[in-house]
Amino acid sequence: MSNLDLYRSKRDFTRTREPKGGDKRRRKPAESGGAFVIQKHAARRLHYDLRLEHDGVLWSWAVTRGPSLDPAEKRLAVHVEDHPVEYGGFEGTIPAGQYGGGSVIVWDEGRWLPEDDPAGGMKKGHLAFTLEGHKLHGRWHLVRLRPRRGEKRDNWLLIKSEDEYARTDEDILETQPDSVKSGLSVEAIGSDPDKGGVWNTKKPAKRAAAAAKPARKARHKSDRAALPPFVEPCLATLQDKPPAGENWLHEVKFDGYRLQARIDHGEVKLLTRAGLDWTARFGKRLTAALAGLPCETALIDGEMVALAESGISSFSALQQALSEGRTAGLTYFAFDLLYLDGEDLRDEPLLARKERLEQLLAGVPTDSPLRYSEHFIEPGATMLSHACRMGLEGVVSKRADAPYRSGRGRAWIKSKCTQRQEFVIAGYVPSSGTARRLGSIVTGYYENGELKPAGRVGTGFTARSAEKLQAKLDRIKAEKSPFTGKAGRERGIVWVEPQLVAEVEFGAWTASKTLRHASFLGLREDKPADEIIAERPAPEPAEGKVTRRKTTSAPAEAATTVKLSSPDKVLWPDDGLTKQGLLEHYARVWPQMRAFVVNRPLSLVRAPNGIEGHRFFQKHAGPGMHEAVMRTRDSDGEELIFIRDFDGLAGLVQLGTVEIHLWGATINAIEKPDQVIFDLDPDTGVPLERVREAAAAVRDRLTELGFESLLKISGGKGFHVVLPLRPKAGWDKVKIFARDFAKAMEQSDPKLYTATLSKKARRGRIFIDYLRNGRGATAIAPFSTRARPGAPIACPIPWSALPEAIPNGVKAGSAPELPDEWRSFFAPKRALG
């Protein structure tokens, strides 16, 4: 069979005007390449056909969303049969019922120049080439995706190289939609009788719904798949680190309820992961938005969330909104499309499904509760780092070429910033202060059909949430424990039927398989109790090898633990805070502190014998430092230390670290600071009220300049006004800005402020310390203790708390929540310069 036999076998040339093509014209392959054409093809769905001339035929790929000038956009390109060279000039309409029925225009044409042997590149799965067209120019790549077992399609990615023709501010498909041959649009070609008849295609989703309906009627009923009542969701496998490689897309892991949206001719249902109908719980706003989509039938996979002002999803906020009936502010993020207008899309590659979904949602207004969940192509480790810094739960990594398969598998991998999962509530312990109040809940998980204890959870409750939860538990009291063996003989526990499921965040599993530093987040009404098992990260599969190990076995002890020497050593004599107590403080605040301290160069204040003994400053690694404290070198060769996880923080405690100070930049972007800190340091005798007024004045001046700032008590004498930045400007520019701002404040009220470090200049004034913004300078970390009497901590607070705020008023051992406004630290709106 010649290269064109497959092409001809699919077409009836007595009915279609497509060129049959002569015998393949053999020619000596040349490094100079040949012609290229991109045809805009409005078939069953709109796509673009890329064709490259080689050895007498046109190699062809169907690019589902068309080429993009943005190098970050990887466009799926399905390799199809070779076409005759004559096809490169074809414009017209392929009749209904014929293969590829619909209209075709020549969207671009010109010459392609391969960088290496094209045949070798095809065999290898990577073509690098230059295009010289009317619309497309510069270097491009076609990269073959690794085929999955049973995969029939030959999937590639079309990627624009970083060069002078790359653009991120233009969608060339929108700005230049018409033919370079005739100047006509694909719609005009379809409506021109001389070009072959009426345009027979389903319009893109972003077109008006009214225009789309006639196209849908043109489909043959025999080709339509029935809309399923419910599809069991695809679930992700937990893994310590995101997978690496170009075959993976990465999405934000939302902190909400997984919901399947079923649309059937205007009727909408919202189904939980277990198939329960929760449509009525979420009000009419979302169902109306879904019913208004330009489709007759669809099945969409997504997550319902409550967003804070920072844009971060919060499960506890979702719980509260639902309990109070406030559903108008909830948002549904759609991340997969399983079915659309008679087409079952589950066997399509993920990238193709997401492209269809994005088209379907393209016309949704910005104030709609319905949103498309974007994916990212940055390395998975980078994505997880960004997610953790922003206070997100983690990331979900998905194979770009994977079909949609129900159940848990390795096509979707979830990586978390914190350990959290669901547990069955087996009982509760009344508060020691008031026997009628809930003090903690007793949790468990199923293993081999038996309920195993996971320990108690005594934090994370408000007075109101504890009261409501206790009322629910009292309605399902049980006479005996649901546990077996010794675990069921504990006293002082009010046992309940194992029906309710709690979402819990925790620090680690102990060796006895119970939770450490656990905090209650809310109830999970969407998950049956008898399906709750203990999760632990699955090992990453070896290259070329499939791991079939189950990921639902009992929890294991943490992979790395830090054992404190002399845990009872007192570090703060006046307060009695020991080394063990310091570690426990950090365990409590770690969920809030983590994003501020990981992957940043650190400087330490150490007091191995307590704050009244010898203290010293350390910014380089030294003997005895735990392996969990990481080392790196900057561009000058200077050694820096940083931490990646809680074990690293525990390693600092082991050293007798009593203060943790941070650079204003991360390890990964060390020359681009992401914050400016103004430390308001009052001279002795300056009233606290004047320092508060100074903080407000700095905030107001920054607001006038178009910047949003945050407030932190320093744990010492003053306040820190923190200005989050997009990391764009270098250290010199940031420090100059900070200096000029401080001097401007000094000039506005020289009796109150000074920007000079000397003690003489500071007499009776507030020193606006801008020097913390130079390269290598540091500032106290949020939630870090201070080497001062009473063990105060530096603590982010909301601006609304300023009138009553005391700079050293929060002590170690407390675990204040991170104010919502502080989450904007991880999504700054402005850069300098």
How would you characterize this protein structure?
This protein has 833 residues and is an alpha+beta fold. The protein folds into 5 domains: 5-204, no CATH class; 234-416, D-amino Acid Aminotransferase, Chain A, domain 1, CATH 3.30.470.30; 419-531, Nucleic acid-binding proteins (OB fold (Dihydrolipoamide Acetyltransferase, E2P)); 570-669, no CATH class; 675-826, DNA primase, PRIM domain (Alpha-Beta Complex), CATH 3.90.920.10. It contains 15 helices and 41 strands. The strands form 9 sheets. Strands 1-2-3-4-9-8-7-6 form an 8-stranded antiparallel β-barrel. Strands 12, 13, 14, 15, 16 and 17 form a 6-stranded mixed β-sheet that branches. β7 and β8 (137-144) form a beta hairpin. α11 packs across α12. The longest helix is centred in the last third of the chain and has 19 residues, at 579-597. The radius of gyration is 31 Å and the shape is globular. The protein starts with a helix and ends in a 36-residue tail after the last strand. The model is unreliable at 24-31, 195-222 and 541-560 (pLDDT under 50).
